[in-house]
Please model this.
Amino acid sequence: MSCLFCKIIEGSIPSAAIYQDELCYAFADINPQAPVHLLVVPREHIVSLAEAGKDHLPLLGHLLGAAAEIARSKDLPKGYRVVVNTGEDGGQTVGHLHLHLLGGRPLAWPPG
Ligand code: AMP
Ligand code: ZN
Model:
């Protein structure tokens, strides 16, 4: 098993845990782009949003709900952004579906 995020989930690569439940794990991004920058990943290995099927819809909702719950636990009164980079043009660099939760500063739009 060569997936970086699967190794983080199983604990063979260290990470700074923020939240976990039976379906997902959230940890601090190693290269933060904002004062709050964490990743929410499903325990199931799904390569990207493009590979998620109808069977994954409850899981996708769970991930979004977890991101919102984590955001509520942070001090982000002015809002935040949830991003799912998908594929090469989407800027995805790790082939295991993940949500970025970014906040703590104004975030520009459109992204680069
Ligand atoms: P993406 O470019 O959307 O695939 O996002 C991958 C993210 O994983 C990047 O923001 C990286 O900084 C982050 N990342 C890579 N390796 C690690 C690691 N070992 N621990 C935490 N975050 C990581
Ligand atoms: Zn994986």
Q: What stands out?
A: Helices lie at 4-10, 57-73. The longest helix spans residues 57-73.
